[in-house]
Specification:
five-stranded antiparallel beta sheet
């Protein structure tokens, strides 16, 4: 199993989650409010991007983002 990669861009206020190598990105499509699916050449979802991830108040005081994981 490949590791999941999570990137937060404070300047753009976006959260990117990758299930595969970001270099494999071929197609991006906005699916709903501020969610973008990222697909490879064969159409498989390899990640997603959340626009405006944090509120302006949270973004202003941001020092770190905590990540919680759980295996179900």
């Amino acid at each position: 199993m490949k590791p999941i990669k999570i990137f937060f861009d404070k300047t753009g206020n976006t959260l990117n989650v990758w299930f595969d190598d970001p270099k494999n990105e071929s197609i991006s499509e906005e699916t709903s409010e501020e969610i973008i699916l990222i697909r490879n050449k064969s159409g498989k979802v390899i990640g997603f991007e959340v626009l405006n991830y944090l509120s302006l108040g949270d973004l202003k005081d941001l020092k770190n983002i905590s990540v919680e994981t759980e295996i179900l």
